[in-house]
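explain this:
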Amino acid sequence: MTGMRAAGARGVNPKVAIRLIYVAAMFLVAMDATIVNVSLPAICEELGVSPAQAGTVNIGYLMAVALTLPLAGWLGERFGGKRVLLSAIAVFTAASVCCGLAGSLEGLILFRIIQGAAGGLIAPVGMALLFRAFPPEERANLSRSLVLPIAVAPAVGPVLGGFFVETLSWRWCFYINLPIGAAAFALGLAGLAAAGRPQRSGRLDWIGLLLSAPGFAMVIYALSQGSMRGWASPEIVATGLLGAVLLAAMTARSLRMPAPLLQLGLLSQRLYRTAGLIALCSSAGLLGMLYVFPLMYQNLFGASALHTGLTTFPEALGLMAASQCMPWSVRKLGVRRVIAVALLCAMAVFGALSLVQADTNAWLVRLLLLCGGFTLGHSVGAVQLLAFARIEPPRMGQATMLFQVQNRFGSALGVAVIGSVLAAGTAGAAADAALAAGPGAWGYRAALLAAAAFLALAWVLALTLRERDTAGVAVRRPQASAAAPAEAAKAPPAS
């Protein structure tokens, strides 16, 4: 609390500071994947490598994220959330600059791995700081800022990446991280001074780390590459099975230990477990749709990458609009009804997207994507509100880390399943505009329906929520600005 007051005394509201820092840091991480995807052809041309070789740029990043993610909770408790978050932002930003300066594929892959290692710490540690700074009744209003990195960053990545590749260089896809990262780091030094003190933490569970880190990395690698390399390929089968065995061993060990690296005992809380599963399925459906729909729009309908990016961007605008409405919706309807109704409407939108044809009016497509973002945005915000409503502050670091692990799995699972449906549906069909009404189109449409199926599973899970599960999960109306300093002084110290 002393740290929070000290920061406020210097004119920086600590609640405002942590919100801005989290948004900026997560914006970097969320935008990084999509902006780099657009630049891969240019990287291949300049560095003289094949597309398959260039693909390792993203594979290394994803695996590095999976390696450090299990460590986030322990590191935040051992060294303090502020120290770990600012260190991760600094390393991520510096590695981004090094990626832009890289003169070889090997150097680029190395710095992307460093980027991923830092990026794996940012989301769980930053979310723990954020949720410790705000009591449960104020967290719904956080959705107005939290949705920015979730919604806008992935959507703006392809547009910004296409602009840099066409007008400047692919290297600017990495340089763009420098001003954002530097601003977040500077604000953290000023606004979080003396906050985020270390807590008591046990010794690092080295065995748990040696089981979970490679286990997560192998499973995510198998899921992300299986549809491209073939699920029956020895590489994918061996990697996936070994990763699953390691995670199974980690789970069995964690359930027997009093202080494991991953506190899986949190999943015994029904509300947290159900909200996490809903978030996993929603993430699978959303990321799967964002993966397959741009491919359909380009490969079947002949749209350019820039035009496709601008067409899908309204989905982000819908998510932003939902963030402004969600607190009001929860107050009026209750969190259970908001989640159920939002998922049902999002399913209908995804189904409508599967019916889009080459001659469908582009503005109708944009309206559908806007509605998809608006409906799903309500569910995403309400589920986050629900997941941490009963979590005690000392366990917040572990809870946010485990929640992020589930979301990562959801994203990888969605792309894996939907990519496989797409591959099976388009097998033997050349993907070009002439096949918009042919057999190739059915693969894309089936993949979009598979994305809707993930939302259907999330909706079924939402129906299992009981009235007593969500009793007391309320939303406080925004306070007048004059009350902000007083509220800040009452806030618990972020750690």
Remarks:
- The radius of gyration is 22 Å.
- The longest helix spans residues 14-47.
